[in-house]
């Protein structure tokens, strides 16, 4: 059991279990006693093999849940739009590659996506395409995108939508 403190000072408790070699993180409540009760319940369910992960939610519904969750942290609307667009961009990439469920996304898919993004070019200034002036995305932009996606998939793990974060092993750009 571990706890996380939010910006507003409230604490949330989470349970971290390993069952049959698979890591399971789950929200456990706002008090230690509730967290202990949740842990006991999870241990009982694991003994009876009743632990299942809900993997059937559509992308849009999960993104909406995440945006509502993040909105509780008093983030600006511009930042929320940016988060939404970055997550949608990755999930659209997945859809184009035949990946239609969150639990089908692998580390390989996330690496391929970040390699594609690192090769993407952007216009430097207005009408720069006429002079063939293009730059690649800067490492800070790519690192920020990795950070957004890691947080999104950690949220999905906390909500029992997936078991593993596909961006966990993605290294930052230098």
Account of the protein in words:
The strands form 2 sheets. The chain has a 3-stranded antiparallel sheet, covered by helices on one side. A two-stranded antiparallel sheet has the order 4-5. It is built from 5 helices and 5 strands. The model is unreliable at 50-55 (pLDDT under 50). The longest helix is centred in the middle third of the chain and has 20 residues, at 77-96. The chain has helices spanning 32-47, 59-71, 77-96, 107-119, 139-158, and strands at residues 2-5, 11-19, 22-29, 121-123, 134-136. β2 (11-19) and β3 (22-29) form a beta hairpin. With 174 residues, the protein is α+β, with helices and mostly antiparallel strands. The chain starts with a strand and ends in a 16-residue tail after the last helix. The radius of gyration is 19 Å and the shape is globular.
